[in-house]
Design goal:
The protein is mainly beta and about 600 residues long. It is built from two helices and 35 strands.
Amino acid sequence: MKQIVLRRAAAAFAAALALTVLPMAALADSESPASPPAVQAEPPQAPAAQTPPAPAAGEAQTPAPAETPAPTPVPVAPAVLISRSEMADLPAGQETEITVSFRNLGDTPLHKPVAAFTPSDGIVLTGGASSFLLDDIPAGGVGSLPVKLRAADSASGVQILTVELRYTWGEEAAAQSGSATDRLTIPVAARPAAAAPLVLIGRSEISSPISPNEIFQLAITFKNTGSVTVTGAAATIAPSEGLSLLDPTSTFPVPDIAPGKTGSITIRLQGAKEITSAAQSLSVDLRYTYDSAGTPTAGSAGDKLNIPAKAAAAASAEAPVPNLVVSQFDYGGKPVQAGGDFPLAFTFQNTGTTRVENIVATVDGGECFTVSGGTNTAHYKELAPGKTQTQKLPMQAVPACKSGAQGITVNFKYEYVDGGKRTPVTTDIRLSVPVSQPDRFQVNAPVSSGAPQAGSESEITLSYVNKGRADIGNLEASLVGKGFESPASVQYLGNVTAGSSGNIGFAFTPEEAGELKLTVKITYEDADLQTQTKEFPLTLQVEESAPELDFPEEEPAEPAGPPAWLPAIPIALAAAAAAVVLVLRLRKRKAETALPGGENWTWQDDAGSGEE
């Protein structure tokens, strides 16, 4: 009996413990992902879409649905990269050779490639052909050929060479045609513009004044004081009323005149039957062309040549008026710098038959010239017929004088006596002197905005100021070098007026760290239209680019799981409940089984109870 009671109590305790532990374990598993899954019965769920199981042996297999075939790829012609070799600026009027390359970027060879070239107006292909056949170019290979180019005399700036490559590709049985086109830039440096050459007009010597009806020959000379050749010149001669031109035409061709050389023509003249004035002259007008930056440009020069003559005896009962003329003058032989000094010497002659007296010679420089020390007036007591006198004085060109030929006027006031009568005479003679403005365009050395870094944009700036009295034209700045990239390496700034200033800036990005050598090139035209160039070499130390800071991302905190002692609570509660139940049952059983007559209940089985 006692054994039966003990076994039943143990079974009840185990059942109570199982019913309490299983729900609590399930709760701990749902809150802690690290806990192993508990084995428990799951409610039935709707079947999810899944791959059907393979059929058992002997069962009929259901055929799978047919797949849609992939589209057939369309063949694409191989891409071709067209480039040229490195080249410097091609001077206008000169020839160079470049290499044009064709890189096959495709996976199939190019067969029978033909390259066709179309140049722009400023360049031409030399050699007589514009299309060339190349060898087959394998996949990933390069084909190249040399091309000779010549820049036109008047070309300037960037010219374009259009290149087209036509080829076939693919299998021979199904070969297809393809083509590639690109525009290659050809930089051309324009010829510098030249100033109009100054031509001085003169004549040969005349031994004595021209008599009425006298026939004589005269050589007209033209001296080219410029820096370019005078070509296609023609001189028109217009004599005064006391002279006649005996040639069939009044216009004469003049041979080409090189810089510093002199050309001449010979004309035939005759004095009039009655020469009313001893001061005769020839007006000479010269028209010519010269080359300026490859472009023929028109120029002109003119002068009035004095011809001494004898007035006819019947022309007047009085003696002819004597004339003073400047037979020659000298200013140093080269253009005078504005603001500079130069010596002026001129020789004048009495071309009359009467002595002149009380001569006053005055030099008037106008707006461009002034006497540099001393006076501009000289006095001479007398000058006999046919005699000469030389006057020298220091002169200066004012700083504001413009470039080109400027005039100096020599004024003569004198008297002569004829038949006891004194007569005053005044005459003006104009001299021409070339003037050149000095170049005072100043460009300061370039400076960097700071230590440049590889891969980061930096800046170079430089300032300029025109301190001269004349404007400069066609100012252009360029940044030359390798190892950097710039959005605008060439800048055209146009004309800069006198007294103006400004700044030039270049943005550039170094490609790698280390020493970077650059050159800032400045070109412009001065007041004499001569091209000037200034170069500023610059060496920069490029630093490594700053490393990027990598901040780690914060990982989200894991949710706290249930305390480790939580599963022990139900176990302790279950054990306490089982102990209480067991004690209560034992007391109840003891009371029910007490024997009559005062016998006590014992753990020993009663005889013949039959219970187990």
